[in-house]
Amino acid sequence: MNIKPEQVDGIVKSLPPAIRGVVIYGSNEGMISSLAQQFIKAVSPDVYDAFHVSYLDMADVTADISVLYAEFNAQSLMGGRRVVVIKDASNLLTKNLKEMLAESSSDSLLVITSSSLKTKDSLALLAKDNNAFYGIGCYDDRDEDITSFVSKFISKQGLKADNMTL
Q1: Looking at the whole model, is its pTM more than 0.85?
Q2: 3-state DSSP assignment of residue 83
Q3: Model pLDDT for residues 92-144, shown as the tens digit of each residue
Q4: Which helix (H) or strand (E) element contains residue 114?
Q5: Residue (of 43, 132, 37) closest to 81 by Cα position
């Protein structure tokens, strides 16, 4: 299911155990990184805890999909839920991800990030259409959107602005 970036703070305070993953994508790489960190910290306060957090690049997964299966199904030696982070994900992951999720009962959380994915890409649609996933689009505010917002706000206040630029 799709959520907005501003909803993440409330969600990560009490991350539902039924959530198996999050796909964070879009052009705003800073926001993608920040939101990924929030989801990781929802499971493991130490984002570098090797017992609870595993980092994979898409290149690792593409070279050998069993790496993803092994990390997702591994159990922490210290107990508790694990996080598997996949950076720079692409649509090549979608088919294998569907199969893995159907076969596995792991409670690991997948945090999938990509600045190249678009809203209509299969990986983003997987998150949108799956109740066990969150999909979060992260995009830069456009100047015309800000100008439009300010203009509407000024109008509602009964004021008038001519040739407004930001």
Answers
A1: no
A2: strand
A3: 999 999 999 999 999 999 999 999 999 999 999 999 999 999 999 999 865 54
A4: strand 109-114
A5: 43
